[in-house]
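Recap quiz, item 2
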Amino acid sequence: MIWPTKDVLDLESLDSDVLLEVLHDVERFDQPIAPQEGLGRTVALLYFETSTRTRVSFERAARRIGAEIMVVDVQATSLAKGETLRDTLQAFASLGIDVAVIRHPASGTLSRVASSVPLSLVNAGDGLHEHPTQGLLDLYTLRRRFGRLEGLKVAIIGDVAHSRVARSNIHGLTKLGAQVTAVGPATLLPSGLGQWGIRTTTNLEEVLSDMDVLYVLRIQKERLQKALLPSFGDYAKGYQITPERLGRTKGTCVVMHPGPMNRGVEIADEVADGPRSLIWEQVKNGVPVRMAILAALLNRKEKVSDALPEIKWPDILKR
Amino acid sequence: MSLLIKGGRVIDPANQRDVVADVLVEDGRIVQFGTNLSRAGVTVWNAEGQWVVPGLIDVHVHLREPGQTIKETIQTGTKAAARGGFTSVMTMPNTDPVIDSPAIVELIRYKSQDQSVVRVYVAASVTKGGAGETLSDAYAIKLAGASALSDDPFTVMDSEVMRRGMEYAKTFDLPITTHCEDKRMVVDGVMHEGEVSTRLGLKGLPSVAEDIITSRNILLAEATGCRLHLAHLSTAGAVEMVRAAKRRGVAVTAEVTPHHLTLTHQAVEGYRASAKMNPPLRTERDLKAVLQGLQDGTIDCIATDHAPHTHAEKEEGTLGEAPFGIIGLETSVGVIMTALVHQGVLTPHRMVEAMSTAPAKIFGFPGGHLSMGASADITVIDPERVWTVESRSFASKGRNTPYEGAAMKGKAVMTMVGGKVVYEG
């Protein structure tokens, strides 16, 4: 697959056929593949916010397609000296880096620089805005489980207001015909969701029996400090996915979580580790999804520099 | 200091005049009206097809002196004012240091005398340092030449302090112009809280935060009798409250910016810092409400809230790091003419009222009319002049405008202050 635009910034701007194409393309990467070498392309990871699974996932993905990978410690860079992100990325481009995977605490940071730097940017999470590869791996996971996304009833539960994962998933799921319901206390449901064609409710109990998917979001400590929630305990009373609540869903209903989990807050241990949980599959699927994304970007005809050799795909990945 | 402005459409609401006429300015004063005027030795300005109006007055600008001259100076800001057709501006106190003492008021007044080409009035801070805790020396500030007090943009959050600030201002007959925003409700907000902020993943500034303080300030003005002027109204709720307050006879006036009359929160799409200001651009419904308010007089005047910043500040960091504010002096007439007057949504009469007659009256400035014998503060507008907004050609140091590249129809082509032509274009 060849990615249609220079960057992967969000799911909001993707056509549903591009979404379907990439989900289909993931399948050929979803097989045991040893780390490769010699692709002739370089991916840099630039993380301004902590991350375990996304970073490791992208590293593994890059190695498995044979790209050279560079993990850049932001503290040690000139960014800490005040260099602008644009200048840093321009420097990367001049150094022959083809793709920069970036996680940043401010929404829209990549959108603001993407058009003025020549290398491809992958959004690994920008503030509250989007986390497109997470959205894609969630869609892929659901498609594998249910065989389809159309008509699936998905409840996204928790701090929707501050969740970039929720936003990406809402865009991806609605584009592919799923029905999304956002659930949480009013303090954590953002304005305007009704205009996106999704339902919102503060009543978790009344949606349980109807759902195919309970997508659980993490509750963060900051919400306690800003008068959005009185305590984890009070939140858990109303919204924790307990075995009892799970028991009131359909037998085929699954539980997902983007991680990291606050066990005992938004999700009970038995649910997280139980048979209906797809959580570890989500993590696993992150690698083939990110391989597909990196490959699709690197397949674009424009090279960052003409001095680079032609891209050499490992046999195992050739179509 | 003498000029014969011939054949223009003279729009002067203060004198109930809207007629094609000649205006003769001699020795800095308006000395004659009529048709077929002539005077030997006096230069003629052919104003055929143009509008001749009392000099425009912008009661909300940030000239950034003292202390922030990297963004703008009295010299560059007032040149921008002249280019925009303004003969008077009132500058806000959020400088460095804050304008909270007679010394700083005097500094600006003296500096303006030779650095400014237009009249500069000063709004000093209600509280010392703009901190909202202790009152500034309002009387000394008035004697030093300030025209008003203001808390822009640092709302006085303590209602007791605001009440006493109003009572004290009333004592010396100083109006107070307020920035209404409950600071505790808007932490980290960068744009209007609504569907667009949700979609972009940005923290919002909710309308209710503006409405709460608008309501409070109106009630305090009612209770104290202080003359209250509400800066940059942006919500439908605020317009309603002003309407009701005026009906009750409260001494409240209000202003609105050209951008709140023409843009909504959609303008922030793409995370554009050039559309980031406070109060933020809001919804279509709010836009319609402030427009209606301006049309029916609930909102008295148009003021730009001209807020220049450096390019680096607005564009080099994240949207959250970018300071609030856009420039407005050199786009105001173009925007109002293009989007409102030419669309038949605002009459030329109302435009002149809002941009000259009313602001002069509210703050007691000379001007706002073209009466006989008055000092000749005159703006000539070419309503048909087509031009494109190119901020790099502006006199202002600021380039931060959401109208960059926009096609405009209508422009000030001559600005005269006290009979002296300070801009011709």
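Residues 2 and 25 of chain B are 5 Å apart (CA to CA).
The longest helix of chain B spans residues 207-224.
End of item.
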